[in-house]
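Propose amino acids for all 333 sites.
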């Protein structure tokens, strides 16, 4: 019997160290949603190679990301956790979807333009095709919702366009997914320049807090965070982008509302406020880091999770792919 729960899909690339931006915008949302939805979470290693990766490093980061997912509270018994390259349907569907996507659409993607500027010596086809592979990921699992940070909004829109286009040409084939964005925390800013998003690959490492940073490093980075003029700890992203960014981080790590967060720091100077946010983050990350380390020591368990995840993911993905092949006229035996 089919169950009536909605389907949720999301993924993170195993590149560099994850930041608390990735955690807040994506993974922390997943943890809350895993009981409500049928969840599929991928490690997007096929997306990762659109920028040159050192092979041993990519392999290592794959298991690290899996351990982190689980340490953050994603339960492999409740969700499907798998590695993108273990399910060949992703590349296969991406090829088909390429023929429903226009070059002009891909050239207009902000992330493509940004990454092309950053990696001018390697503007490869994969970098440009990245959103189509992402559409394939999402559509293979007939996903209803996709919780991501705001930087992925444009990719979600193109996924919806491609799905709708295909459904209109043939007949309803794909669920048209909705993006799920946090009201606060969908775009965590860089601590040294809150107008920029906190990024795994930022040039200034002081602006990004990594999930693996130790307590002293975390606190040092928060102490150095830029604030704004005035001295009141108020959530006002327009006029106080630095302070508001820190409040967003505090809210994400404590589950408090804006009002509760502001009340916690009423009458508090910026210095004490920054220290308190740093301590809160360090306290919350310490057990996650310890659990990640513990899991990483048990490679057999992690590989077992990936193996089971790949089998379950493949079972779903294959059904969608054969439906697509049938509709477009691929002769099937
Ligand atoms: P990636 O690996 O760049 O980022 C992973 C997730 O973290 C979110 N994020 C942020 N959220 C808030 N503030 C920030 N500063 C911040 N930085 C990153 C991202 O929005 C993302 O949700 N293309 C995707 C991976 C992917 C995917 C998919 C996602 C591949 N296939 C299918 C959803 C569905 C990416 O590169 O994420």
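Proposal:
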């Amino acid at each position: 019997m089919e169950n009536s729960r909605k389907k949720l899909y999301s993924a993170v690339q195993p590149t560099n160290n994850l930041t608390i931006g990735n955690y807040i915008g994506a993974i922390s949302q997943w943890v809350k949603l895993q009981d409500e939805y049928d969840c599929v979470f991928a490690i997007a290693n096929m997306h990762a190679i659109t920028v040159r990766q050192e092979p041993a490093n990519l392999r290592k980061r794959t298991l690290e990301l899996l351990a982190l997912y689980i340490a953050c509270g994603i339960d492999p018994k409740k969700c499907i956790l798998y590695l993108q390259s273990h399910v060949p349907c992703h590349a296969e569907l991406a090829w088909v979807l390429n023929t429903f996507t226009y070059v002009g659409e891909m050239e207009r993607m902000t992330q493509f333009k940004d990454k092309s500027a950053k990696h001018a010596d390697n503007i490869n086809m994969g970098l440009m095709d990245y959103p189509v592979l992402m559409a394939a990921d999402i559509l293979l699992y007939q996903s209803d919702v996709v919780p991501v940070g705001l930087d992925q909004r444009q990719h979600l829109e193109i996924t919806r366009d491609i799905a709708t286009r295909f459904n209109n040409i043939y007949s309803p084939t794909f669920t048209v997914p909705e993006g799920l964005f946090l009201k606060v925390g969908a775009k965590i800013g860089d601590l040294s320049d809150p107008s920029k998003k906190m990024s795994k690959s930022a040039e200034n490492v002081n602006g990004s807090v990594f999930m693996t940073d130790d307590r002293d490093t975390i606190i040092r980075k928060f102490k150095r965070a830029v604030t704004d003029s005035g001295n009141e700890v108020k959530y006002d992203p327009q006029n106080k982008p630095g302070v508001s960014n820190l409040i967003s981080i505090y809210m994400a790590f404590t589950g408090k509302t804006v009002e509760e967060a502001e009340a916690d720091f009423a009458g508090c100077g910026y210095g004490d406020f920054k220290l308190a946010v740093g301590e809160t983050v360090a306290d919350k990350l310490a057990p996650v880091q310890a659990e990640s380390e513990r899991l990483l020591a048990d490679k057999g368990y992690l590989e077992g999770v990936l193996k089971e995840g790949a089998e379950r993911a493949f079972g779903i993905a294959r059904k969608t792919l054969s439906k697509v092949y049938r509709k477009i006229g691929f002769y099937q035996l």
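The two ends are 27 Å apart (CA to CA). The beta strands are 7-12, 38-43, 80-83, 145-147, 178-180.
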